[in-house]
Structure formats: C-alpha cells, structure tokens
C-alpha cells in the first residue's frame, strides 16, 4: 500500500520524499528539504484551496481545486497538471505533458509541455515550447515561442523569436522577436 501524506488546513510542513500521494488542505504550505529546497512526490499531489510549495516540486500528477497555487521553484510533473477554479504561479520552470488551468498561469522562467490549455491568461517570462497552446484570453511570452498550434481568444504577444505552424488569434497579435 502506498504512503499518503496529509497536510492539514493552514499548516506548514517540511517534506523531502513522499513515496505515495500528497494531500494538501486549504491554506497549507509544504517546504522542501535540502539546498536548494526540493519536494519529490512519487504519486499524485492534490490541493484543496490555496496552497504554497517552497522549493522545487516534482510529482507524477498534480491536481488542485478552488484556489491559487504558488510554487517557489520549479514545477516538474510527469503527466498532467489540472487546476479547477484556480490560478497557478510558478517562480521557476514548468514541465509537464499536459497543463489545464481554468483561470491564469504565470511562469517566471520557461514552460515546456505537449498541450497547454488556460481559460484566462498565460504569462511566461521565458521560453514556451509545446505542441498546442490554447488560451481563452491573453497569452504573453518574454522569450522564444516554439509551438505547433497557438489558439488565443484575446491577444497574443511574443518578445522573442517565434516558430509557430498555425496561429489563430481572436484579437491582436504582436511579435517583437
């Protein structure tokens, strides 16, 4: 039977390795161990409400519902990141196969995925690499954009070089690179 680690609402815990799943309660914080801090979850991370991770977070899957998620480091997920009724802020790199977030995604470094779907806005300060990026509102990239298909309901802005096979923008597109 795999391990299940539960973090009670509004509590802060220090974690290193979790051999199973991690369940985070509303307002909880997980601090990584080591220098730089890192949390490795071999199973699934499930967050209810607002949750914070201090350090790099590695997981098999990542699910959240009803709150904003903050990762003070990189977010590396083997399969999918799914956030219902919430926002994802990562102060590092994001890497996953699929990313599906209802509201907003903010990444301070680079984003790499096969498929990215965001209902509101996607803001990446660094490079974006994906097969598909589908954003309902606003998509901004500060670095290179290397994506096969980009669909944006609102506007698209890229500061770096752009390599896109198919671009569909409902509003305005601006490419500076």
Looking at this protein, list some descriptive labels.
8-stranded parallel β-barrel; 64% strand; 10-stranded parallel sheet; 0% helix; 2 domains
Structural write-up:
With 177 residues, the chain is mainly beta. The protein has 2 domains: 1-98, no CATH class; 110-170, no CATH class. Helices cover 0% and strands 64% of the residues. It contains no helices and 24 strands. The protein has a 10-stranded parallel beta sheet, with no helix packed on it. An 8-stranded parallel beta barrel has the order 8-10-13-16-19-17-14-11.
Work out the radius of gyration.
16 Å
Strand segment tally: 24
Question: Percent helix among the residues?
Answer: under 10%
Q: How many domain units?
A: 2
What amount of the residues lies in strands?
A: over 45%
Unreliable segments (pLDDT under 50, ≥5 consecutive)? none
Oligomerization category of the chains in this entry: single chain
Please trace the helix and strand order, writing H or E for each element: EEEEEEEEEEEEEEEEEEEEEEEE
Largest sheet: 10 strands, parallel
Q: Average pLDDT across residues? A: 96
Structural class: mainly beta
CA-to-CA gap between the ends? Answer: 52 Å
Helical run tally: 0
- Shape estimate: elongated
Order the strands across the largest sheet as they lie in space: 2-5-7-9-12-15-18-20-22-24
């Amino acid at each position: 039977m795999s391990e299940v680690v539960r973090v009670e609402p509004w509590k802060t815990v220090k974690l290193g390795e979790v051999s199973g799943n991690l369940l985070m309660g509303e307002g909880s914080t997980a601090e990584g161990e080591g220098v730089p801090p890192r949390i490795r979850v071999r199973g699934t991370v499930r967050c209810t409400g607002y949750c914070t991770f201090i350090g790099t977070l590695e997981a098999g899957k990542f699910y959240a519902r009803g709150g904003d998620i903050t990762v003070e480091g990189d977010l590396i997920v083997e399969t999918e990141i799914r956030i219902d009724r919430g926002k994802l802020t990562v102060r590092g790199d994001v890497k996953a196969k699929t990313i599906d977030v209802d509201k907003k995604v903010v990444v301070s470094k680079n984003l790499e995925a096969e498929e990215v779907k965001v209902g509101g806005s996607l803001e990446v300060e660094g490079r974006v690499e994906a097969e598909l990026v589908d954003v309902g509102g606003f998509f901004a990239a500060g670095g290179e954009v290397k994506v096969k298909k980009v669909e944006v309901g609102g506007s698209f802005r890229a500061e770096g070089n752009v390599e896109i096979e198919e671009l569909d923008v409902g509003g305005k597109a601006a490419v500076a690179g």
